[in-house]
Write a structure and sequence with these properties.
The chain is an all-alpha fold and 144 residues long. It has one domain. The protein has helices at residues 2-31, 39-73, 83-110, 118-124, 127-141.
């Protein structure tokens, strides 16, 4: 029963993390469209900081902790036939790297030092979706 509770928490954390990963770049699109010293820029900076610190970061940490706990409890690292897990972990590492990049970009935007435009953020906004699709396919289909 504990395993199922951890799994439920894992899924909830993933959903929360992904909401932030999809919303933060969208906020960046709007943020770069206003003057750096405007009241709107300050509002966007506040929204971005709160989203990243109070939703995305805790959700990412809970996702990692519960995911690794599930893999250890399921003995998936030591038994053969779980190649899908290695693929999933690679994609989650890439997603975590993107999270770090977005956190750094948020700081640059907050001080008016970002060199990226709205088009860049519209494109980067699609990356979490692509990674999520890969992760879900690996977890559900387990192709290898």
């Amino acid at each position: 029963m504990t395993y199922l509770w951890i799994k439920a928490l894992h899924v909830l954390a993933i959903i929360s993390w992904m909401v932030g990963m999809l919303y933060l770049p969208r906020l960046f699109v709007y943020h770069v469209g206003v003057p750096a010293d405007s009241p709107q820029a300050l509002t966007f900076a506040t929204m971005e900081k709160r989203l990243q610190r109070f939703i995305m970061l805790p959700a990412m940490l809970v996702t990692w902790i519960t995911g690794l706990t599930l893999a250890i409890q399921g003995d998936w690292f030591r038994t053969p036939g779980h190649g899908w897990l290695h693929g999933k972990l690679l994609l989650v590492v890439l997603l975590s790297g993107l999270h770090g990049y977005l956190a750094a970009e948020r700081k640059r935007l907050a001080v008016g030092k970002s060199t990226r435009d709205a088009k860049f953020f519209r494109i980067i906004n699609e990356v979490p979706t692509i990674l999520l699709i890969g992760i879900v396919i690996l977890v559900v289909v387990k192709p290898f």
